[in-house]
Amino acid sequence: MNFRARRTKAARAVSRAGVDGLLVTHLPDVRYLCGFTGSNAALTLSGSKAVLFTDGRYTAQAKAEATGTRVVIAKKPAVTAACESLAEAGVKRCGFDAEQTTVALLDSMRKAVPAKVRRGMFVPVQPLIARLREVKDSDEIAKIRAAAQLGCQLFDEMLEYLRPGLTEREVAATLEHRARLAGAEAMSFETIVASGERSAFPHGRASEAKLPRRGFVTLDFGVVLDGYMSDMTRTVHLGKAQSEEREVYDAVLEAQQVAVSAVAAGVTAGDVDEAARSVLRGAGLDGWFTHSTGHGVGLEIHEGPRLAARQTQPLEQGMVITIEPGVYMPGKFGLRIEDMVLVTAAGGEVLTPSVKAWIEL
Ligand code: ZN
Ligand code: ZN
User: Which residue in 112, 188, 231, 241 could disulfide with 245, CB within 3.0 to 4.6 Å?
Assistant: First the structure.
């Protein structure tokens, strides 16, 4: 495990941010830094020291999971105990992630420390740990790879199962049941099954609608293995397609493949977005491509980097991103194709190699 290396990087980021400690309350960040998976935790970093605060329900689990940190089982809210201990340790300026801290939480953080140090004690900083998490280490890449592979295996099985007349909900239930039997801890997010006209909903929740005799079915789903998520989308056609359906599919597939080929360390996220968008523009379809091209994936389903227009952030080796252009024509049909891609020195490695060529069932 690489927790020590992660905390060393975190300590560097903390000092670069001009603070002498960091309060971490976002649970995926806590897990990333020490391995603890409980539902109530706060973690403090100051210098090279990390302390995990949780409650009595997690005494045994924290001992078993937390690596290299002192564990404090608090009788009061974990955040309160964490803030008290930061103040006692003499931390004068403690950073916190403004994106993960509610006004109410900040209020309780302030109340936890003595009035004489309260002023200037808590300093909002950029999401330092989320930023570190964008670049995956080898341990994380192995876990993400396994989750992506399981996703592909499930999709291949679904090809044998999909047929007209099944409800979208039955399809989602079958997929999720098989995922759990195959070892998934959970689904990464609510499974999307959108068929027929509903395929024009970019995030069509599986409904009671029946799969049509002729039309698209979009499956967008992911599994969680060892805390790490997968995310993939495939769109298949039931019955014989109309030529417009086939043309739009081919354009989305080309956009997706061109964007995957554009992935490389040093290329900006905006350039990859533009690679997909320009293909659809050339086909006169960009007006129907209403979302961004992709996002990072890891302990959370949506992480940085964001692959959207004008994003100047360069991709880095070790990032895991999705490439998922789509076209949605309300009242007609829609489709999306999504892969997970690992940014490597040489370019991009697709982690979800399930077939993307036109499938007619
Ligand atoms: Zn997805
Ligand atoms: Zn996605």
Answer: 241
Q: Around ion ligand 1, which residues have CB less than 5 A away?
A: 220, 231, 233, 338
For the packed helices 269-282 and 243-262, what is the interaxial angle rounded to 10 degrees? 150
**Alpha carbon of 339 to ligand 2 centroid (Å):** 8
Quickly state the pLDDT bin for 22 (edges 50, 70, 90).
very high
* Ligand 2 center to 322 CA (angstroms): 6
Q: What are phi and psi of 356, to 5 degrees?
A: -115, -10
Sheet holding 42-46, edge to edge: 70-73, 49-54, 42-46, 21-24, 94-97, 122-125
| 318: nearest Cα among 140, 128, 131 | 140
Contacting residues for 68 by C-beta, under 8 A, at least 6 apart = 3, 4, 7, 34, 50
Q: Which bound ligand lies closest to the C-alpha atom of 220?
A: 1
Alpha carbon of 95 to ligand 1 centroid (Å): 33
Of residues 253 and 205, the one with the higher pLDDT is: 253
* Start-end of CATH 3.90.230.10 domains in the chain: 138-350
Question: Would you place residue 1 in the very low, low, confident or very high pLDDT band (cuts 50, 70, 90)?
Answer: low
Residues with beta carbon < 5 A to ion ligand 2?
231, 322
CATH homologous superfamily of 3-132:
Creatinase/prolidase N-terminal domain (3.40.350.10)
Ligand closest to Cα of 296 equals: 2
Predicted pLDDT of residue 203: 86
- Bond into 77 cis (ω within 30): no
| Sequence letter at residue 228 | Y
